Amino acid sequence: EYMGTSVMAETWQYNAGKLAAARWLPRSDVAAIVCGTWDELTSSLSLWQCGPIDEALALEFVRKSRCPHPGSVAGLAAVGPGHVVSVSDRGFVVLSGVDADGDISVVSSVAAHRGPATGVAVLGAGAAAVSGGEDGAAVVVDLERGLVAERVADADLGTLQAVASSTESSFWTLGNELKRWDRRTLAPQVALRIVGSSATLTALAVHPTQPDIVLTGDSDGQVAVWDARASAAPLARVDAHKGAVADLQFHRSAPTHVFSAAHDGVIMAWDLNPDNDRTRSAFAFCDEPNIALSQLVDSALPVNAVDVSSEFSVLVGASDAGLVAVRGL
Rounded mean pLDDT of the chain? Predict the structure, then answer.
């Protein structure tokens, strides 16, 4: 097992309920995140804001508003500074808005799946989103009109565990195989599979500027790095967690840094180019020593999602114990 190191990072915990997801809103005027709960009597979305981000002050996130959600939140993504799109275990794709006073409310909901939805990603500039579900379908929803625009009914033979945006006209799905789909033809451009492993693929992230570079996580706690142009096999595989990987996120402005959250209660920070070697691509490696791992959070309960703000350099995690925030990355 490839072991990482612990780093001195300041951590704060907030009682936000049993959280399935947390995502930063892309705003520079105020530090704001949206959280989604699961497995509660009344599932909800909530908006949290933080006071001044100052190294001399504690991080003080405060819940500003909350609204009911049609079922447990199973995925969440920001649609610009004032909207989020979420999916539920009842198969809905839900668009919600945040007004100038910080109040969050549902704008529209679309019945997209025959059973629980599992993940959602925003396509292009935010006019559409793609969702995946246990029914094996990938569904593109027109967020402006609130209706299903495209459906790939058999995107996978089993459950789609995750979806991710690739380009304006393509998206990735993660099930028994890792596939990239062309929206214009609804046909797979790429289909990749890990050979020799019985683990279920559980998490997916696409490089923000290189759409052929993809990370996957699996039920054994392993993370794999793929280059869809180069090989049908992963470039590298690392045993980073002792439980299923729940979420993976590239740092948007510094994508050689990656963050992973898992059901072992741990959030890890990855440095894919720890030597700051400017003569090679951060992904021109095939061996584990080119990756540096640091443990940021160690919780007794599963961490289900992670997100980091480029504007404020603060990481948030959504766990069964609530909301966790980390500074000093």
Answer: 90
